[in-house]
Specification:
Layout lengths: L15 E8 L12 E8 L2 E5 L2 E5 L4 E4 L5 E5 L12 E8 L15 H10 L3 E3 L1 H14 L4 H17 L3 E3 L11 H16 L7 H7 L4 H12 L3 H19 L4 H7 L5 H12 L3 H9 L3
Antiparallel strand pairs: 1-7, 2-5, 2-7, 3-4, 3-6, 5-8, 8-9
Helix pairs in contact: 1-3, 2-3, 5-6, 7-10
Length: 290
């Protein structure tokens, strides 16, 4: 099924669109759209793919992403089990850069907002007091209407623009023109890797799914993901390992095997390269904050 590029199109009659998303899991498709997106996770956990990064996500995460920055919030595999009783909730706000009107960002009073939008093209993840405050305001916005909702939205943008409690998500903005067909191909590849991370994954199989030769696929994938296919596979596997290390009781060796690694040494090496710490260090560090 084709992924629509204008997934979150904002009606001309609206300043922005806010949605309270409540479902069994978040949209499992890799996608992109020309609007800015502010998203807070209220319930759920899994792996997020934003731009060229792959990292675990959890309740409370708050991200602002810019136009056409590809993203996917893939819930943990337990959410897709037939007998799953799990559910997710998140609030998302879509808005256009010119929601205040054309040329408004050139005004002196809105210089901070203009700079915020420029930074958001790489994606911004907020933490600390900013995250807590904005989450509270977004919850209030769900039930706000008319000019009150617009005032609340401007309040949120002001807080984000003035905050220093953020980190960049992607290494850069989307640097190429995406097409709807990219969504089709990349979704097939994402699903193939995520569904088979425990098993052998081959470049040839991925290329076949994308209807390209292995050489053409390697070039195509690196252009759109800003990394090689093998690096992507490693990051997916390590991302799954992160969940297992924090949520489960398996030994480090068992986690590595479950994530498709044949040797403990290779698992330890790739895990450290991607996360900056050893698997056991990661388990100890992140269990402190769960």
């Amino acid at each position: 099924m084709r992924v629509p590029i204008q997934k979150s199109a904002i009606p001309d009659s609206r300043v922005f669109v806010i949605k309270d998303l409540q479902d069994a899991y978040f949209d499992p498709n890799w996608h992109f759209h020309p609007e800015y997106q502010l998203f807070v996770v209220l319930k759920g956990h899994g792996t997020r793919f934003v731009g060229d990064t792959i990292k675990p996500f959890k309740e409370g995460d708050l991200l602002l992403s810019g136009p056409n920055l590809p993203h996917l919030w893939r819930c943990h595999e337990s959410y897709f089990a037939k007998d799953s009783q799990l559910s997710t909730r998140g609030i998302v706000i879509y808005f256009d850069e010119n929601f205040l009107g054309h040329q408004m960002l050139e005004k002196e009073e809105l210089a901070g907002l203009k700079y915020l939008f420029e930074k958001a093209k790489r994606g911004l993840e907020y933490y600390g007091h900013t995250r807590s405050q904005v989450k509270e305001w977004m919850l209030k916005m769900v039930n706000s209407e008319g000019i009150e909702s617009v005032i609340q939205f401007l309040k949120i943008l002001s807080a984000l623009a003035h905050s220093k409690e953020y980190r960049y998500v992607s290494s850069g903005p989307a640097s190429f023109q995406l097409k709807a067909s990219d969504g089709d191909r990349m979704n097939l590849v994402h699903h193939y890797v995520i569904d088979n991370f425990r098993q052998k994954i081959t470049l040839e199989e991925a290329a076949s799914l994308a209807n390209l030769s292995p050489v053409a696929f390697s070039r195509y994938f690196k252009t759109r993901a800003n990394k090689t296919f093998s690096s992507f596979v490693s990051e997916v596997r390590v991302g799954q390992a992160c969940h297992m290390l924090v949520d489960g009781e398996l030994s480090v060796a068992a986690v590595g095997f479950e994530c498709g690694y044949k040797t403990l040494s290779n698992f330890n090496r790739q895990f450290r390269e991607i996360t900056g710490m050893a698997p056991l260090e990661y388990r100890k560090e992140y269990r402190k904050v769960i």
